[in-house]
């Protein structure tokens, strides 16, 4: 799974300007869309969310969390959900097909989040087989009922209740689903411009535009967003409220700030956040591989990609980029006390 993701990230075409500097921030500019970090299983955890917020990301989603596990198990809650006061606005994404369970899960995260999102777009078979993810796209009435349950449970009109969906054809089906969700009280809709059966087909941004024109709630466009310039182009084309990125941010967490490739300062900050929040060493290793793919020359990428644990990777970066040494206060070297792991490539 990780190898396939690396191949997709490596295939992202990056057009380099003469000087790879960030664009002037326009976060306060009401004329630009909000920039959103997508829910990514394993990857959109607290350390990564803290990082991308430094680079013009306005809102972050957690990884998908199974709602019933979150409700039933304190151990699961501790393992799957963590946040901090600086981690706002934060949308917690749940997977379930049960309105009562979703409402209970929402109660548990209400005081530590800005809203919840129901995953209605994941096309993976293990998620669909449970009746979750994109399996819910054929059940617009159930989705509306789930939204109503959350609204009835959380008496806070400012608390966000969101659905993340994929499109279906004929498009009228998706428009109908969105209108029913709107009538039930949904706050916003994140729309991935592919069907559940599509993996690498170009996103249908025109479909997102039609959906945006058909409802009165904010729409967030998702699908193949790989640069700030592209995000602005998609927003202009579709008229949406926000633009969401996933793999583009993995490859370059500073993407929305206008960087064309990951700045070394960003890598330094990530190492610090990973240590501060005790990010799993496997995930730390994978993040570093992803974000340095367009930074290192091909020969050095090959060397780094061959490493099987974060210890070797950090030692390599320590030698390659001495300026990373100040990633942790009071240390003269990178945090090489991170315990080596034998296999960092499992999913």
UniProtKB/TrEMBL annotation:
Domain DUS-like FMN-binding: 38-313
Pfam families documented for this protein: Dus (PF01207)
Amino-acid positions noted as binding FMN in the UniProt annotation, renumbered to this chain: 39-41, 93, 164, 192
Residue positions of the active site: 122
A GO molecular-function descriptor: tRNA dihydrouridine synthase activity
Entry's EC annotation: 1.3.1.-
Tree of life domain: Eukaryota
Cofactor list: FMN
Record has Nucleotide-binding as a keyword: yes
Catalytic EC class: oxidoreductase
Keywords: Flavoprotein, FMN, Nucleotide-binding, Oxidoreductase, tRNA processing
Keyword Nucleotide-binding in record: yes
Listed PANTHER family: TRNA-DIHYDROURIDINE SYNTHASE, TRNA-DIHYDROURIDINE(20A_20B) SYNTHASE [NAD(P)+]-LIKE
Family the entry assigns: Belongs to the dus family.
Protein task: Catalyzes the synthesis of dihydrouridine, a modified base found in the D-loop of most tRNAs.
Name by which UniProt lists this protein: tRNA-dihydrouridine synthase
Source species taxonomy: Eukaryota, Metazoa, Ecdysozoa, Nematoda, Chromadorea
């Amino acid at each position: 799974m990780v190898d396939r993701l690396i191949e997709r990230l490596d295939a992202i075409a990056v057009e380099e300007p003469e000087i790879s500097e960030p664009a002037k921030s326009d976060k306060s500019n009401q004329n630009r869309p909000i920039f959103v970090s997508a829910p990514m299983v394993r990857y959109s955890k607290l350390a990564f969310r803290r990082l991308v917020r430094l680079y013009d990301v306005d809102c972050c989603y957690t990884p998908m969390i199974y709602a019933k596990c979150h409700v039933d198990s304190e151990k699961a809650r501790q393992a799957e959900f963590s946040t901090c006061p600086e981690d706002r606005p934060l949308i917690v994404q749940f997977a379930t097909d049960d309105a009562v369970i979703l409402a209970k899960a929402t109660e548990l995260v209400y005081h530590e989040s800005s809203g919840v999102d129901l995953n209605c777009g994941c096309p993976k078979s293990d998620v669909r087989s449970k009746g979750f993810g994109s399996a819910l796209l054929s059940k617009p009435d159930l989705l509306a009922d789930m939204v109503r349950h959350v609204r009835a449970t959380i008496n806070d009109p400012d608390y966000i209740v969101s659905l993340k969906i994929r499109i279906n054809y004929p498009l009228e089906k998706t428009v109908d689903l969105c209108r029913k969700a709107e009538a039930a009280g949904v706050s916003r809709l994140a729309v991935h411009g592919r069907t559940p059966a599509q993996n690498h087909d170009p996103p249908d941004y025109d479909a997102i535009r039609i959906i945006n024109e058909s409802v009165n709630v904010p729409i967030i466009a998702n699908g193949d967003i790989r640069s700030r310039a592209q995000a602005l182009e998609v927003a202009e084309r579709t008229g949406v409220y926000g633009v969401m990125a996933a793999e583009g941010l993995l490859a370059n967490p500073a993407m929305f700030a206008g960087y064309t490739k990951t700045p070394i300062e960003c890598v330094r900050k990530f190492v610090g956040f990973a240590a501060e929040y005790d990010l799993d060493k496997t995930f730390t290793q994978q993040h570093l591989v992803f974000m340095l793919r367009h930074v290192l020359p091909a020969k050095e990428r090959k060397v780094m990609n061959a490493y099987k644990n974060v210890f070797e990777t950090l030692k390599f970066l320590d030698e390659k980029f001495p300026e990373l040494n100040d990633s942790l206060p009071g240390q003269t070297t990178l945090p090489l006390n991170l315990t080596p792991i034998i296999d960092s490539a499992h999913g």
